[in-house]
Amino acid sequence: MQYMLRPAHLFILLSYLALSLVPFVPMALGKPVDMAWQLAGMEIMAWTAVWAVFKRPAYFHWLLVPAFLALPTEIYLFVFYGQGISTHHLGILAETSPREALEFLGQKVWTMLAVMVAVAVWWVLTFRAARQTREMDWHDKSRWVAIGALVLLGAVAAYGYEFGASAAPKPGAARMSAPTSASVSGSASDDDASDAPAAKPIAAAGNTGWKLPPLPYWARVPVAGKAFGESWPFGLAVRGYDFYKERRYLAELNERSAKFAFHASQPEPDKLPEVVVVVIGESSRYDRWSLNGYGRETNPLLSKEANLVPLADVVSAVSATRLSVPVIISRKPARQSLKDGFSEKSFLTAYKEAGFKTWWLSNQISFGQYDTPVSVFAKEANVIQFLNLGGFTNNSNFDEILFDPLKLALADPAPKKLIVLHTLGSHWNYSQRHPKAFDKWQPSLFGIDKPVYTDLKIKPQLNNSYDNSILYTDWFLSQVIGRLKQAAPLSSLMYVADHGQTLYDNACRLAFHGHNTQYEFHVPAFMWYSDDYQVRYPEKIDQLKRHRKTKLATENFFHTLVDMADIRYPGDHLEWSFLSPEFTLHKRYVDSYGWSNYDNATFKGDCREVIDKSRR
């Protein structure tokens, strides 16, 4: 083994070790790493497999090119956003032009180029060292033993995948009665129990048609695809495959609706400048807005706006962003919201057909399991910008990052504009959704990176932080309205949240969303309009005020948003627009123990679970 201590050999081994340690960078930053031992074990197995199959480092060193090139980005994301490269980031890289990249990086571009050159030189030097030595070849009998062991493990894993595995021993009754993270909170993203597809039965048969006994629980191969995707460098292959699946899925959804058209227009077209802004809120709860009667002054600025009409009774069909937003922005029926995809386009296309230039400016992520259906609709816009590099559960941009692209959109020479702002709003972690200046109510979770959100002891801090996020939303929306007043005399703005939150209310032991509570279905919404808008559309304002307390649903918003600019199309449904005198009430369905009629429901207990009376 002394030959391993030679400088060239040490250089190769230490380079590979450095790559393997990338997933553990958070530890150096004082943050925990999930499944650390499992990650280390899978990396050892992966290196063993690659070395055994290829025999010589020079033969597999080419496979490491993506890992070397992605290394600076991975570490950058760990340091500033607390996470590694995901399908979301790969999507941004795929959709960002060189010009946009230069604008985003600014003077940092030279530092970035220098780092990339250094990494490229590192790869070349490592490859040269690997090519010039044959002493690191794996050519003895142990190589075949390793290959045999890997083949056996692969066969066992394939058997378990095909025929399932026996269930783990059941925990004791006392342990089962304890609250779990799923029962009290779900996830910090939209990955809630109600959103996820049903799990594959543990002992279910696969596609062969054979009926063989399931794999014993003790014989399971301890390799999880998700965990392997977090490893480095070979885990990048899993992320790349996930990205490929997302791209295919997006392409399929685009193909379904590619030929769809509303044939929309304004009955009395003109060239007068007109701006419509739509703000999609996130995780905002109706009864935490002082605009709606909350005791704390969470809306000190919006409450001063003269031309702002709050809507008192708006219900979202489902409490998950990826499922609720399509219902808001398209004609997708509420009771189809659990199904991915839709054969029609959104109100963005209706506006484009009517001569408006359209923008989709988002502080949410563009790729991934929880937002792909939204991204499909966003791609209809003339200008698309996704600005969130930090995801949901870690430090990320505040919503004010949307101000600069909003300024550019308002300054655009197009006379008619539709601008959609998709905010991060009050998505968990609430205290990371606003700067320190808005940390008004104490004690809060501000400055705590990963609070244990399943711990009921943090209920006061959690609620204070949530109210602080609403206070920031008030400021953000007030700023948007102020910019509209200055830039566009004929302008209007519609705000609606995608869903609400449960917040350990009273004795309720649930938090966040993905449950069946009234707190998650009843959402805040309002419309603001300029004086010139009221002069041009007086009847719409009359109807808006008339319906401010009417029973509305997010299904009404597509029709209302199109009606805001007086856009018409064949077969339109003005009876669904609350700006129209033709508006009529309809049943409001919510995803609570199946599709429930919200207006024929009781609200059970402190959690106020929505239960359809007809099901009792």
Q: In words, what does this structure look like?
A:
Mean pLDDT is 86; it is low at 172-205. The chain is α/β, with parallel strands linked by helices and 616 residues long. The chain has helices at 7-20, 25-28, 36-54, 57-60, 65-81, 87-95, 98-105, 108-132, 141-163, 173-177, 181-184, 225-230, 236-257, 321-329, 347-353, 372-378, 403-411, 459-487, 518-521, 531-536, 538-546, 555-564; strands at residues 274-281, 308-315, 357-362, 383-386, 416-422, 491-497, 502-503, 511-512, 522-529, 552-553, 589-591, 595-597, 601-604, 609-612. 41% of the residues lie in helices and 11% in strands. Strand 7 and strand 8 (511-512) form a beta hairpin. The strands form 4 sheets. An 8-stranded mixed beta sheet has the order 4-3-5-1-6-9-2-10, sandwiched between helices.
Q: Rg from C-alpha positions?
A: 27 Å
Oligomer state equals: single chain
User: How does the helix and strand content classify structurally?
Assistant: alpha/beta
Largest beta sheet, briefly? 8 strands, mixed
Give the DSSP E fraction (strand runs of 2 or more residues): 5-15%
Helix content: 40-55%
